[in-house]
Amino acid sequence: MTLSQQFAAYSEWRSQLSARIEAFREWLSDNDLSDAQTDLRLVHLLDKLREDRLHVAFVAEFSRGKSELINAIFFADYGSRMLPSSAGRTTMCPTELMFDPGKPPSIELLPIKTRESNASISEFKRTPHEWKIIPLDIESAESMQDALRSVSEVELVAPEIAQKFGFSTADNESAAVRTAEDGAVEIPRWRHAVINFPHPLLQQGLVILDTPGLNAIGTEPELTLSLLPNAHAVLFILAADTGVTLSDMSIWNEHIGAPGRRKKGRLVVLNKIDSMWDELKTEEEINAEITRQAETCATTLDRPTTQVFPISAQKALVAKINGDAALLARSRLPELELALSQELIPAKQEIVLENTDAEFSDVYLRMRGLLESRLAGLREQLGELTELRGKNKGVVEYMMGKVRIEKEEFESGLQRHYAVRSVFSQLTNKLFGHLGLDAMRALISETRETMMQATFSKNLSGAMKNFFNVARDNLGKADDEVNEIITMMEVIYKKFAVEHGLKLGTPTRFALIRYQKEIDRLEYWCDNHLNSMFRLITQEKHKVTQKFFEEVAVQVRRAFESANRDTESWLKAIMAPMETQVREHQIQLKRRLESIKRIHQATDTLEERISELLHVEYDLNAQIGSLDKAGEDVRLVMRKAVGRRGLRHAA
User: Fold this and answer.
1) Is residue 81 within 8 Å of residue 91, measured between CB atoms?
2) Which residues of the chain fall below pLDDT 50?
């Protein structure tokens, strides 16, 4: 199965899963089982599935054939080159290819001058008026190709302007920056491009990131701090005739293969092997030479040889367009596509499956526990009423008094529930005291003031170190509060289960370790790009400070924002089962007492009430069976994804 086919199958699976979860949500609503919190969780789960994206980044120095490789893998069915691909520099700014059905086909271009502000690309995406929009005529290949050439546009500026925008003009980097005879520097006209194109794969959620060469990569912090690290796959492209050059090595060491970076989904592509197709050599000699070059590249980059793929993107594109199977096989592109389909899609599907499974299972088990609680209460009531058959009024009065005492005891025990809510509120306040955005804003403000007042490099370095230490310490303290909340809820769940027969299960687990790892990753980047002796000595204080807050602090703040959202969702989820069960138990006790009161007032209603409850019992059993069927429908779709991998599925 090709990558395109595998991705289409994955998208179909995701659509089926969404449809089954939506059906489950509607079933809960139709059966009066849903509440605001449960519905919100299912809506959030559906939104995540709907907005799920698969990000594939192509990274290389100039003229390595990135755009041609994208054309060959994803857009050969279009019948021509979608992205411009020719000798020299064709992609001058980071370019995202995606599809948003809410927008017309177009190219959105962010001017390079926006680097003068402190705003990131993500922030500019919320201000459409800053972008230049070029409509795409998808019916005309020629018109599209003309429009897409805009990502290659450049402009000449004075060296000081280029430096202001973050481009180095040092002599030792002249290969990456072109200088005119009058001293003007050639820089990209655009900072970022977003191509909105209704290609089938893009419509299914694929997002392709085409990056420029070394000089441009290093000037866009969001690319190196967010877009590349979070890509599900990164294809690093080399030229077969040159192997690993110094600039290739710089990109690999700084942005892809650095310690602490993800290793999964990081593949090396040795492109342009057709340059080694020498008619004076045998096929065996050519293949041996290609193998040696691939092994040399693997050794240089410290990667397994199995992760280096020699290909010819240009010949593969020609072969696909012309239907030339022999040329396609010789291009070796199918081997790369197979590796992507076997590694990338299953890994992405596994992440989506585990997240969906955990959330859905929690909702499903809570709903089943609620129905089982109702059934248990009903059967207890039926047992009490059955015992009253043929009994005198004194026995009925005794039974009524017994239920009344049980009700009073439960309501007395509710004081513990209210106390738990009070303690829970206090712990939550302490948790957000460490994790909340107010604490992060205060830390950013304090660090900025310290760095602005610093007189020595040591003070600047210390302020940055302290920023990360405090951020990490706040996450650690927040995690301690999370564990305390879990421990408290475990005790309370058990007490209510033993004393009142409530079926609460175990509290939902949660941890902040992923955010702690993100802080570690950002500090590593900062230490290598800002907080090093060389950088502190060679750069002015205000530039270091500006870069720190524009490039690093903003990413730390985003990590805390994400942690806050996840923590708020978890706090609601951990309290919901107890709130629901307590409310349900109160209703059951009230109904039992009212039933016995009615029978005490009119003995002839006993059989009617027993018959009524038997009918309710039948309906409840049917409802539980229907819930199990709705849950199994979701699990069946999940199991289609796991297949041989044998991942766990919803309980």
Assistant:
1) no
2) 172-176, 642-651
Cβ 426 vs Cβ 439: under 8 Å: no
Please state, as a whole number, how many other Cβ atoms lie within 10 Å of the Cβ of residue 493. Answer: 20
Q: 290 Cβ partners below 8 Å, 6+ apart?
A: 240, 270, 273, 276, 310
Angle at which helix 554-601 crosses helix 513-529, to 10 degrees, equals: 170
Domains of the chain (ranges, CATH numbers):
53-153+189-331 (3.40.50.300), 388-601 (no CATH)
Expressed in angstroms, the distance from the first to the final Cα of the chain is 31
Does an H or E element contain 397, and which? helix 393-435
Instruction: Show the CA angle centred on residue 243, arms to residues 239 and 249, nearest 5°.
Output: 100
Q: Are β-strands 190-196 and 95-98 bridged in parallel, bridged antiparallel, or unpaired?
A: parallel
Return the structure tokens found at 318.
């020609």
Both tokens of residue 413? 């025990």
C-beta neighbour count of 619 within 10 angstroms: 11
**Contact (CB, 8 A) for 381 and 595:** yes
d(CA 216, CA 650): 46
What angle separates helix 554-601 from helix 437-453, to the nearest 10 degrees? 160
pLDDT of residue 646: 39
Q: Which residue has the tokens 């207890």?
A: 380
Q: What is the pLDDT of residue 174?
A: 41
Q: Cα separation of 155 and 320, whole Å?
A: 36
**Eight-state DSSP code of residue 532:** S
Burial label for 637, CB within 10 Å (0-12, 13-18, 19+), is buried
487, 527 contact by CB (below 8 A): no
